[in-house]
């Protein structure tokens, strides 16, 4: 299968202060994969993913999206392929109504009025925004604005979704919507990259994790493998979800379990197995 | 998106000028500003400019100063050209030479040279002041001489907000480009400005709450983290600044013999060379700017 994103020896050095933000990273992402990108603040996560939509150009190396070299593309051209949901929705909300906000992206990529309308209706339904449709985006609560931000990218139907900290500082309803969104995108065959510190979210939804430390990609594996690797976890100062830590202790220190649990359901399954033995 | 960053801020150092109290330095800068606007005499303006240059050398801020000069130079060159052919000077004008629809006037060349020197004399002194004084020290000293704390604070906050807003604008522009917004033209104005302004207003609201929760506006004696000492030398310097600049201003206003616009006669060769060099210099700058913008 042709990878949808291909990164070859990518290095990015910020011109201000000569900070090496990404150092010699190579990776391939297949269509339909759900990835988590983790690492401490300043480890280069955001710098890495910003290359996928052309917001940053490589200092060295190449980035291809659907076989196209991103360094020769404008962000506006890439936007139809790659959707970037910003952490702070306030950075993009400007329209007079939520409806206009949702229609902005699809109009920009040149869809007809009917298509735009249809996509807005679908997004509104999925994100439960019916009652806010005619309100000003700044009149609704922050978690709702976050949903509007995601919905405004969803209406553009890109092949790749980049979600930057989708659950940070969000209430439960928004967090649940993020879970539903990622599952729906998976069903629709989209590729999703989730830049996040929310390990519970990542443990439950992603297939593969990229771990960055000091600008380098130090691990590219399943969440189960990443969470079980003490060296990687402690050197990046990341902590697995509590349920995973519990299962790891029971498994490795007390030899009680025979598998690492990523969710409560998996833990329940493991304990059930145990009681059967 | 990377703009040209003009380094109008303090350049750390320990020169004799860095060690001075900010108040006399500010007084000198303001005094020279007054002198510069009070006269058109090229000799006086030139002398002020050269003295300023000496201070730049003493303060060892030449590199940063040159960057400012690079910005001022095209403006000054354009002024010389425009003034020479259309003087901002009371008529009658004495023509030196004409070519096509344009005529170079004696008063125009005089006025152009004066204006360029005026720009350089006052900015050089102002730059020496700004580049050798820590912003906090400036405001602490101003407070010592009775500038209200709140007014001082407003000034500091405004200065700090500029880089924050620039950064915010960059982020917003990127966010809208990610939604395929055309990066230029009137259509880009609303989507990029609304979030920046709403963000700025929200930021100010939060700031005011956080300030009040940290006892902003309480009465009584305030302490300051940075201490600014004022030595005998600083007081003398301050007195010198006031006396010399006020005296010079009075002299250049009163002394009519400093009016050289008709006595300092410019020859044809000199005038043509000056205007040609200024025009070419300005056009080179313009071309370079267009090239850089087109390349980004």
The largest pleated sheet of chain B is described as: 2 strands, antiparallel
When the domains of chain B are counted, the total is 2
- Class by SSE composition of chain A: alpha/beta
Distance between the amino and carboxyl termini of chain B? 8 Å
How far apart lie the N and C ends of chain A?
A: 42 Å
**Oligomerization state of this entry?**
heterodimer
Shape of chain B: flat
**Structure classification of chain B:** mainly alpha
Strand content of chain A: 15-25%
Average pLDDT reading of chain B: 87
Order of neighbouring strands in the sheet with most strands of chain B: 1-2
Number of strands of chain B: 2
Silhouette of chain A: globular
Order of helices and strands of chain A: EEEHEEHEHHHEHEHEEHHHH
Spans of chain B with pLDDT under 50 lasting ≥5 residues?
1-6
Radius of gyration of chain B: 24 Å
Count of separate DSSP helical elements of chain A? 11
Indicate the low-confidence ranges of chain A by residue numbers: none
Keywords:
heterodimer, A: 277 residues, alpha/beta, 6-stranded mixed beta sheet, 4-stranded antiparallel beta sheet, 11 helices, 10 strands, globular, B: 296 residues, mainly alpha, 2 domains, two-stranded antiparallel sheet, 10 helices, flat, disordered N terminus
């Amino acid at each position: 299968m042709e990878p949808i994103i291909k990164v070859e020896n990518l290095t990015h050095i910020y011109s201000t202060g000569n900070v090496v933000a990404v150092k010699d990273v190579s990776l391939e992402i297949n269509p339909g994969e759900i990835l988590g990108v983790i690492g401490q603040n300043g480890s280069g996560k955001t710098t890495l993913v910003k290359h996928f939509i052309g917001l940053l150009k490589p200092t060295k190396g190449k980035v291809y999206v659907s076989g196209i070299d991103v360094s020769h593309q404008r962000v506006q051209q890439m936007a139809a392929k790659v959707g970037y949901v910003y952490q702070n929705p306030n950075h993009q909300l400007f329209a007079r109504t939520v409806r206009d906000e949702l229609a902005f992206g699809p109009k920009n990529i040149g869809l007809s009025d009917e298509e735009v309308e249809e996509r807005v209706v679908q997004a509104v339904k999925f994100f439960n925004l019916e009652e806010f449709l005619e309100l000003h985006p700044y009149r609704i609560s922050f978690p709702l604005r976050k949903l509007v931000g995601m919905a405004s990218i969803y209406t553009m139907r890109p092949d790749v979704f980049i979600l930057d900290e989708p659950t940070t500082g969000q209430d439960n309803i928004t967090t649940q919507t993020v879970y539903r969104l990622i599952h729906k995108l998976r069903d629709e065959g989209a590729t999703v990259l989730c830049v996040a510190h929310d390990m519970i979210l990542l443990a439950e939804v992603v297939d593969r994790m990229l771990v960055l430390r000091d600008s380098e990609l130090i691990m590219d594996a399943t969440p189960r493998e990443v969470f079980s690797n003490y060296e990687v976890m402690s050197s990046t100062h990341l902590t697995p979800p509590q349920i995973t830590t519990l299962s790891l202790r029971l498994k490795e220190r007390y030899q009680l379990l025979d598998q690492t649990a990523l969710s409560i359901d998996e833990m329940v399954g493991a304990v059930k197995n145990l009681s059967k033995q | 998106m990377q703009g040209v960053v003009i380094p109008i801020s303090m350049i750390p150092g320990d020169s004799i000028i860095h060690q001075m109290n900010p108040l006399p330095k500010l007084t000198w800068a303001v005094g020279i500003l007054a002198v510069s606007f009070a006269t058109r005499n090229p000799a006086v303006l030139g002398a002020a400019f050269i003295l300023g240059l000496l201070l730049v050398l003493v303060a060892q801020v030449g590199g940063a100063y040159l960057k400012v000069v690079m910005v001022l130079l095209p403006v000054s060159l354009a002024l010389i050209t425009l003034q020479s052919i259309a003087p901002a000077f009371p008529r009658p004008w004495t023509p030196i030479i004409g070519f096509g629809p344009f005529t170079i006037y004696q008063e125009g060349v005089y006025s152009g040279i004066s204006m360029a020197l005026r720009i350089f004399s006052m900015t050089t002194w102002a730059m020496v002041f700004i580049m050798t004084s820590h912003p906090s020290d400036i405001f602490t000293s101003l407070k010592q001489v009775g500038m209200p704390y709140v007014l001082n604070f407003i000034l500091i906050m405004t200065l700090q907000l500029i880089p924050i807003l620039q950064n915010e604008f960059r982020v917003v522009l990127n966010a809208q480009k990610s939604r395929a917004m055309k990066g230029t033209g009137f259509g880009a104005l609303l989507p990029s400005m609304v979030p920046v302004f709403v963000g700025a207003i929200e930021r100010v609201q939060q700031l005011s709450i956080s300030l009040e929760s940290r006892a902003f506006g309480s009465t009584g004696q305030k302490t300051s983290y940075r201490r600014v000492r004022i030595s005998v030398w600083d007081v003398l310097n301050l007195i010198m600044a006031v006396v010399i600049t006020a005296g010079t201003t009075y002299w250049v206003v009163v002394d009519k013999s400093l009016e050289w616009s008709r006595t300092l006669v410019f020859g044809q060769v000199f005038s043509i060379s000056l205007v040609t060099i200024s025009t070419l210099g300005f056009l080179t700058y313009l071309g370079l700017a267009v090239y850089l913008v087109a390349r980004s």
